[in-house]
Amino acid sequence: MAKVLMLLPDTDFDPTEAGVPWHVLNEAGHDVCFATQAGTKAACDQLTLSGEGLTGTLKTLAARPANREIYEQMSAHPNFQNPLAWKDVNPDEFDALILPGGHAPGIKQYLEAEPVFDICRNFFARKAPVGSICHGLLALARTVREDGKSVLHGYKVTGLNNFQEKIAIRMTRKSMGKHYQTYPETVQDETSAVLKKARDFKPGPMLPSFGTAKSPRKGFIVEDGHLVCARWPGDAYKLAHALRARLEA
Predict the structure, then answer these.
(1) 3-class secondary structure for the chain?
(2) pLDDT in tens, 172-222
(3) Measured in whole angstroms, how far is the alpha carbon of residue 62 from the centre of its chain?
(4) How far apart are CA 33 and CA 171, in angstroms?
(5) Could you give phi then psi for residue 97, rounded to 5 degrees?
(6) pLDDT tens-digit profile of 128-156?
(7) 224 within 8 A of 157, measured Cβ to Cβ
(8) Residue 99: other Cβ atoms inside 10 A
(9) Rounded CA gap, 235 and 205, in Å?
(10) CB-hemisphere CA count at 13 Å for 191?
């Protein structure tokens, strides 16, 4: 059994991007632990979880019913109820790291935190398995090595791409303001700037497929050594199984 660390902000992470990897690894017998800024229980982006107020095509942004159920199971688990504080994490005690994403403002808390960068730096130094989804990639892009370069420099990656991010912002701007615009710069643009080559960011197919428990191979991920990256909730199952394979190799 492996011991896996998932880092979360206090609020506003995506329920599917956290819940599905937890579910897949927990079902396989691995111990998934959580850490937040002060060691208090986290809460996901409630708008994405419930879908309240999302009508028409905006409903596609809400968590699917099966994934809402997984989130509720995760949130009731003792490990989720009793997270570590970032500052108290000893990364060497963990075999893998998961960095979920999200759009809403609260996600910035962990994308801008030095203790999070310290944890990420440790996993890259050990080349231990790391999985990131969506905005979670920014935590890695902003983690700097001793040579002044991002830990992602030299890796091929993916994350929320420009097409996905910009269309979500446009779709929701009228009804939700900047709820879905996390930063002025997109994930793809900020990350590409710290890679060895801008083309090392792989945007994936224009029309994404949505992975499920019955179809976990659907979705798009990029694997490069110990690093596995995904773009959005539809890729969560594929990412989770890729991490599981590394832990059980």
Answers:
(1) CCEEEEECCCEEECHHHHHHHHHHHHHCCCEEEEEECCCCCCEECHHHHHCCCCCHHHHHHCCCHHHHHHHHHHHHCHHHHCCEEHHHCCHHHCCEEEECCCCCHHHHHHHCCHHHHHHHHHHHHHCCCEEEECCHHHHHHCCECCCCCECCCCCCECCCCHHHHHHHHHHHHHHHCCCCCCCCCCHHHHHHCCCCCHHHECCCCCCCCCCCCCCCCCCCEEEECCEEEECCHHHHHHHHHHHHHHHHC
(2) 888 888 888 999 999 999 999 999 999 999 999 988 899 999 999 999 999
(3) 16
(4) 35
(5) -130, 140
(6) 999 999 999 999 999 999 999 999 999 99
(7) yes
(8) 30
(9) 12
(10) 32
| Encoded tokens for 43 | 């809460």
Mind listing the domains of the chain with CATH numbers? 3-248 (3.40.50.880)
For 51-68, give one letter per residue: b (16+ CB within 10 A) or e: beebeeebeebbbbeebb
Report the Cα–Cα distance between both ends of the chain, in Å, rounded. Answer: 12
Query: Across all residues in the chain, what is the average pLDDT?
Result: 96
d(CA 247, CA 249): 6
Position 41: which residue type?
K
Listed residue (84, 86, 94) closest to 128, CA to CA: 94
| C-alpha to C-alpha distance for 97 and 129, rounded to whole angstroms | 6
What tokens appear for 73 in the block?
Answer: 């199971």
